[in-house]
Amino acid sequence: MRNRQTSGSRSATGSSSGTTAGTAIVLALACAPQFMVVLDISVVNVALPSIQRALGFDEAGLQWVVNAYALTFAGFLLLGGRFADLFGRKRIFVLGLVLFSGASLAGGLANLSSLLIVARAVQGLGAAVLAPATLTVLTTTFSEGTARTRALATWTAVGIAGGTAGNLVGGVLTEYLPWRSILLINVPIGAVAIFLASRFLMADRGRGSRRRLDVAGAALATAGLASLTYGIAQARTYGWSAPVTIGALTAGAVAVALFVMVEARFARAPLIPLRLFRSRALSAGNVAMLLAGACLNPMWYFLTLHMQKALNYSPLQTGLGFLPHTLVAIVVGARVTPWLMRHVEGRTLIVAGALIAAAGFWWQSQITADSGYLAGILGPAIVFSVGSGLLNTPITTTVTSGIDAADAGAASGLMNTTKQFGGALGLAVLVTIAGSHLATPDALAADYGRAFLTIAAILVAVAAVALTLPGQRDGERRRAVND
């Protein structure tokens, strides 16, 4: 694999000395769309009041500016991941960019609420195609060892930065520009990425001519995950016992059960080959990813509310308040963790990172309305950002290690699905645990404190799951050190 990739990189760049430049461009191509995809999960939050005033949304309809993206993103991730395997990584990567950028343009120009919701849904579809493709491009370009670890560390850090920057970018753009800018900003970035991908990504034919897409499995997986995500979203609004919640969750569970049966007994070209789960690294790693997503994605929601409602920060001040989280996580994730992974087992780093992050969230759970920024936000942020920076890359590396290139897209789609579904499930559960006291800053701080304490407990469970992961073989460790 290494020789083939090096040869391809030389042909793309024109010389052996250009190999590094060629792979650097591939890395940038994978990271920029990943940043956009993660950014658009949160960037609209700050702009929602402006969107509501401009397009006349009512309170019930406004949530679909967020949910239309989240539902299609989570629901189509498995299908999007398999597309890259069957039809070629480059082709699907470009298709995802075109869908995402085109939908961003349509949403930015929308003059009706219904058009904006449709555009956000298509954006989510583009993200579901694009997100696993970015990871597949990395895992098939960089061989296992130091090169892949560094690439995945950068990709992970960019994803963290995108999640954090969403509030800051949304706050800045909404403060100084029309709300449409939060969507239109994706268009020039996407256009540049399409141009560079067309020029620098190696063409691959995929296996579409030899294997058909698992249509039944795709329909069941998409319907199941979309129904489950919809049910979880409704639980936040109507409660877990509401008929709409129970109906959606039941339908989703039935669809997922049928999906497993179809994949195991009937599919000739399974969307997710169940043999992949024989890998303890993939199966246990995805459980750890599910739990980590249930913690690290929802924390932004509660921190944003705490800063705006309990500390009375403006949207721009809230975005700036997240800068330490971003900087610490990027430095630890992109610089410190790759170096540590050359000397320490991945599962050890996951355990250590989860426990450090748990300690940070326990500290965060002690907040009061009088805590202030330094003691109530900055101190805990440094601790749990160090922990999250340590565990994210080893989990990603573990889940994608030892996977055949032909199944890289399926594994990437599964990992992204696990993470996004974990975030949706975690947020719904944590909102329920936090309660609904809205009277005073003290009551709000107590509510958010319960959520952060629950996050700490879930991270301890992540550490326990990580202990079941396979250890790094001595030969792999020596190769990583010597690369």
Automatic annotation (TrEMBL):
The keyword Transport applies. SUPFAM superfamilies: MFS general substrate transporter. The keyword Endoplasmic reticulum does not apply. It comes from the Bacteria. Its main location: membrane. Signal peptide: none annotated. It is found in: Cell membrane. GO terms for cellular component: plasma membrane. Gene3D superfamilies: MFS general substrate transporter like domains, Multidrug resistance protein D. It is a multi-pass membrane protein. InterPro entries: MFS, MFS_dom, MFS_trans_sf, Sugar_transporter_CS. Keywords: Cell membrane, Membrane, Transmembrane, Transmembrane helix, Transport. Pfam families: MFS_1. This is Multidrug transporter. It comes from Prauserella flavalba.
